[in-house]
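Render F-box/LRR-repeat protein 4 isoform X2 in 3D.
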Amino acid sequence: MSQSSATNSEDDSKTANNESVAVDSVIDFKGKHFGLESTSQDSDDYLVSGSEGTMIDVERFCHADYRIEQYAHSVLDFSSQYGIDLSISYTAPNITGRPSKYPEYGDFPQTFAMRTYGAWWDRAPSRLKEIQPQNVSEIPAEDFIVLYFEDYIIPDEIAIFETYNPGAVIRVWAYTIAKTWICLWEDKEFYTKPIYSPSRARRFTPPLKRIQLPTKTIRLEFNHQRLHYYTEIDAVLLSGKKFNTRNMQHLLDYYERQRKGSILCKLQNMKFRPICRDNYQNRLQHFLMHDLDKFISVLSDVQIQSMQRQQQQQLQSSNTDEMKISKIGLKNMPFEIMLKIFSYLDLKSLFRVGAVSRFLYDVSTHPLLYSELNLKPYWHLASTELLSTLAKRATILKKLDMSWCGCTVQTISPTEFKKFIQQRGDSLTHLRLNSTKFLNASCIDTLGIVCDNLKELSLRNCSPSPPLLNFSCLANLKNLERLDLFQTVIESDLLLTMLENNPKLKHLNLAFCSVAVNMDDVAQHIAKYNKQLISLDMWKAHFLSAQGLLVLSNCHNLEEIDFGWCLREASLGDSLREFLTQCTKLKKLFLAAVRGLTDRDLEYIANLCPNLEQLDLMGVLGISKERYIDILQKCAKLQLLDLCFCDNIMDYDVALWSRTFKVDIKSCQVPNDFR
C-alpha cells in the first residue's frame, strides 16, 4: 500500500483540526471530560478547579452541617438479573430500600443476583471474543446496575450490603448535575488481593473520591471472574452532605466559569484579553481569525533567542561524522509498518497520537485501524458527536460493539445512530447492542434493511416486557451465525421466521425469552432448519416439554445446552437418553431445577457424555449419591459440577469428591429459600 493511498481525502484533511477538537470534547485523551476523571486517580481528593487550581467552594451551596443517609429509591438500568421480571425473586428492584436480610448470610430470593459467576461462561463453546480487545480495561466490567436516590448530595460514603459471596464490585460511578460520569472508586487490586472467603455478610464501604458536584445517581460495576458462586446484594446506602437544589443553577454557572482549558489558563496568566463577540459559540473562531497573531507575538523574545543558542551549541558540539549520517524519521518507515504499530493502540491513544503531527494524524485516521470498533469500555464518553466523527474514519467497518452506550442517560440520539448505520452498516458482520436504550423502531428497521451481511447480532436486554420495539425487519437477515436475545422480548412468529431464514446459525441465546414464545415450536424449527447449531441457551425460557427435547436430538453438533428452569416436565421418559445418544459432542450441560431427572437419567449422562466439562444439576432432588460418583468417575474431562441445593449429599462427601476427582463442585446445603 502506498503512502499516498493511505492518506485521507482532501475534505477530511481540511477538517483534521476541527475533528480533533470535536472529539476532544467527547473523549478526553488526558483522562478528563468536562472536568471528570474517567478512571480513578492516585490522589485522595477529586476537586473541580479553576485555572489557577482554586477549588470551587461548594459548601455555600449545601445545607450547613446537614448530612444525610439514603437507601436506593429505584433501579434505572441493569445488564442482567437472575430472576425474571414477573417474579420478585433475585430481581434488580430487590436492591432498593433498607436491607431485608443483612446481616444474615446465605442465598435469599429477596436480594439482587446476576446471571453468572466465575470464569465458566468464558470457557464454554459459546464464549465471545472481544472486538478490538486493546480497548478493554485491565479489569473489565461484566455487569452493572444504576441506582437512583431521592436527594442530591455531595457523596462521601457508600455502603453495599452483600449477603452472599461478596467481592464482585469493581467500580462505583456517580452521575453529576454537570451531566458527567465520575468514577468514585475502582478496585485496582482486584486480581492481586486475596479472594474474600469468609462465609458471612459484608457491609462494603470502598473509599470514595471526594468530588464537589452533587449526585443522586450511582452506578455499580461488577466482575464475577473470582467468585466461587453467585453474588447477592441486599441494599445500597449512600451518604453525604445534602445539596440545596435551589442553588443548582448557581453552582452550574459557577462551575462553568471556573472550568478553563490550558490555552485559556495561558491567556489569563499573560493577561491577554482578546476581543470577543456576544455569541459564545463564535469566540474560538473569532480568536483564530483575528487575535491569533497577537497571541503569538507575546512569546518571549528572550526564550526564542535562548532556544536558538542552545540549538547552535548542539550543532557545534556534533562531530563531522555524525552530521554526515542521514536522519531517518517516522516518515521514512513503510506505511504498512506504521499501520501495524498503530493497530495495537486503543481508541483513546489513536486520537491522542493524531494530535501530534499531520503525518501521524494521517496514519491514525486510516480506515484499516477502524475496521473494528468497541465503544463498550467508553460507555460514559460515547456520544452523538463521537459517532459522527467515527463515521468519517470507519469506512470499512466490519465489527461494532456499542453495548452499554447511551444507557441510563441518552447521549446518543437514535437519529445519529440510524445515520451511522446507513453510512457504514452495509459492511458490518458483527453487531453488539447489549443494554442500549437509544434504539427505537426506526433504528431496528434500518438494521434489518442495511445490515444484510450480519453474521452476529446481539440484542441482550434491549426490549422489556411488554415489547416496545418492532423487530419485524430483522426477518431480512439471512447470514446469521450467532443470535443473542437474552432478556429481550420478541414475537414468536418473527423468531421462528429468523430461525428458518438463517440455516448457518451456530449459537442461539433465548434465555428469558418472552412467555409468548413456545419453546417446543422453537425446538421444532431448530431441528429442521438449524442443524449446525453448536450452543443453545433456553435458561428460564417458557416451558420446553420432553417432546421438544426429543426433536433437538437432530442437532448432532451441539456442544453446549442450557435447559435450566425451562425443562419442567414431571418425567422426561426416554427423551434425555435419545438426546444424549445423538449429541455426543456435549461439553456443557446445564439442567438446573429440572425436576423430572431421575437416577436413570444421571446414568445416561455418565455413560453417554465422554466430553462433558460443565454439568449443572442445581436443585435436582431425589438423586442417590452413587449416581454423582458414577458421573465423576466416567466423565474424565469434567471441570465443574453444580450440586447446590441437591439432597442426599453431605459437605464431607463434596470435599472428598473434589479432592479425589479434581473437580470444582458447588454445594450449598439447606437452602434459606429455594431458587
